Amino acid sequence: MITRIKEVAFADENLKKAYFKLREGKFEDKQMFDFINRAIDDLKQNPLSGTRVPNHLIPKEYIKKYGVDNLWKYNFPNAWRLTYTLSGDSVTIVSVILEWMSHKEYERRFGYG
To answer: In the chain, how many domains are there?
Structure first.
């Protein structure tokens, strides 16, 4: 049995820059940076560590912008969320981070609020 290589990537360069910018921000930004780091570590160990979002609930924006056909959410403290999708092949599985947001933003994005 072949063990797949597990990697984590950002959906685009702007998101990656925003992630690194958190490190130099205020306390809350640094805290979010730490939360995202923990998520990255978890996803490198187990890409299925989040919660699967049913396909009919995937925001159309994600489908249009990223071509997403599967979506996962990773819960942070204080009801913040990270969304990601999985892609890969028989050798590698990549958790692609799409965004992180407050619970209020999450509800808006998914049409709950």
So the answer is: 1
